[in-house]
Amino acid sequence: MVEEITIPVALMHTGVAMGTVFAVLILISFVIWLLKFVPKLFEKKEKAPEPVKKEAPKAAPAPQAAPVKKTTDGEIVAVIAAAIAASMTEETGVPVSPDGLVIRSIRKRNF
Question: What are the backbone angles phi and psi of residue 57, rounded to the nearest 5°?
Fold first, then answer.
């Protein structure tokens, strides 16, 4: 004999199934929320605080002016051509030689 399922029994089965699904979804969202704390746990393990040693500050030597290297326009053009070639190679994926580039003008921009 086949037992007939009445409407209240079917509603109860539906409610239990939907409740189970929502409970699992809430559990998954809680686990995802907890994952934001994982990097902080690893940072604490990697960074062990070093003992702080306090010493009297020493007088710094007098700063000396660094010698200024004079660059020629040819060097600047070569560096800019190499940078443009590298940028074009990165964008296109095809190697570009700075020898094939022609730089018509270089203007200094004030930012």
Answer: -65, 135
Task: Give the single-character DSSP code of 5.
Answer: P
The C-alpha atoms of residue 89 and residue 74 are separated, in whole angstroms, by 22
Contact (Cβ atoms closer than 8 angstroms) between residue 106 and residue 77: yes
Global pTM reads 0.35
Q: What is the pLDDT of residue 44?
A: 63
| Residues 43-84: tens digit of each pLDDT | 765 555 566 666 666 766 767 776 767 767 778 778 888 888
**8-state DSSP, 93:** S
**Spatial distance between the Cα atoms of 84 and 88, rounded to a whole number of angstroms:** 6
Round to whole Å and give the CA distance between 48 and 50. 6
User: Alpha-carbon Rg of the chain, whole angstroms?
Assistant: 35
